[in-house]
Every structure is written in structure tokens, then in C-alpha cells.
Write a structure and sequence with these properties.
Elements: H1 13-19, E1 20-23, H2 34-46, H3 51-64, H4 68-71, H5 84-96, E2 102-106, H6 114-127, E3 132-136, H7 140-146, E4 149-154, E5 157-163, H8 164-169, H9 174-180
Parallel strand pairs: 1-2, 2-3
Antiparallel strand pairs: 4-5
Helix pairs in contact: 2-3, 2-5, 3-5
Length: 185
């Protein structure tokens, strides 16, 4: 972070894990309550035990992912009983609670139905106002809908990177154009 080589010996991995949050393809809430999922990082990273502070953090984090109204009466129920979409939003809220600088999202909607996908995409559009979001997706339409900048990778090589609109409408590399137009892939 901030020009630091995160692969160097002695890199502060705890700080890295706090500053860069990861959302996986399949939601992975902890086998704890909704509340405990949210406050876990704060308790581990900062040692906060003040109930009022943790309550405020849980409410703020759940509101930021539009889950507060749905779950405010179920905070102490298992997070494992939530729908897939709710689990994914909970995992995002869990990250936001520790205030990362960057959110990495690996196919965050691949396990969701179209309506849930639309809600997660709307959430991403809102969150990008305050966070740097890097999303990996095979869904070109999703990339076009949610990103400002996009890159096309092929066999581990970054073929092209630029403004999303330019990449999709005026690609510079033939391989990008071939993929976008469905000639392969």
C-alpha cells in the first residue's frame, strides 16, 4: 500500500489485510451471528470491546450495504441462515467495518440471481464513491455497468486497460475486440 512492496520480507500483512478487503465468489460469512460477523474485525484489529461503539459500528456497516432494515431484528441470529444475496452484502459490510482503502471483488455476483445481482451492482456503484473497488468478472455486461476503468486479461497477460467505454467501443487490441464481439471466449 502506498508504494510499499507487499511481497517484500517484513511487509506488514496485518495492515495489508486491514487496508485491502476481499469479497469472494461465494459468500463466506463466519459461522457466527450477523452482529459478530460485523464487529469481528474491529475487535481483532483494534481491540474494541465497548458495546456502544460496536453497536454503532454494526448499524452503520449494515446500513451502508442496505441490510439494516432487513436484519436489525435478527442481529443475534446465525449469519448462515441468510439468503445468498444477504450473505454477500453481509460480507461486504464486514469489510467496510474495518475501513479498508480497497475492496477486491472476485466474481461477487456469480452465485446470485439477476435481481440480487442488480442490487449488488447498485451497491458497488454507491460504494465506489468512497472506496477503490477492483472487480474480477467474466460478465462483460457487468463490467460495462459498474466500472469506470476496465482491463482485458488473456492467459494471465493484461492485454488492454483504459476507460471502460473506450475499451468496449474502441478497443485498441485485436484480441480485446475479438473477445468483446464474441469471436472467442
Amino acid at each position: 500500500m502506498g508504494g510499499e512492496d507487499i511481497l517484500a520480507a517484513g511487509a506488514d500483512l496485518v495492515r495489508l489485510r486491514r487496508e485491502v478487503g476481499m469479497v469472494f465468489q461465494r459468500p463466506n460469512p463466519f459461522p457466527l451471528s450477523v452482529y459478530e460477523n460485523i464487529v469481528f474485525g474491529e475487535m481483532v484489529h483494534c481491540g474494541t470491546r465497548c458495546r456502544d461503539s460496536l453497536d454503532e459500528l454494526a448499524e452503520k456497516s449494515l446500513k451502508s450495504v442496505l441490510l439494516w432494515d432487513e436484519l436489525k431484528d435478527r442481529l443475534h441470529k446465525s449469519a448462515l441462515g441468510l439468503s445468498l444475496e444477504q450473505k454477500q452484502r453481509l460480507c461486504i459490510a464486514r469489510l467496510l467495518a474495518v475501513k479498508p482503502e480497497v475492496l477486491l471483488m472476485d466474481e461477487p455476483c456469480s452465485a446470485l440471481d439477476p435481481q440480487a445481482t442488480a442490487r449488488i451492482e447498485e451497491l458497488m456503484r454507491e460504494l465506489k464513491e468512497n472506496y477503490t473497488i477492483i472487480i474480477v468478472t467474466h460478465n462483460m455486461q457487468q463490467a460495462a455497468r459498474v466500472s469506470d476503468d476496465a482491463g482485458f486479461m488473456l492467459l494471465g497477460e493484461l492485454v488492454e486497460f483504459g476507460k471502460t467505454e473506450d475499451l468496449f467501443t474502441r478497443p485498441k487490441d485485436k484480441r480485446t475486440e475479438d473477445y468483446i464481439t464474441g469471436r472467442y471466449g
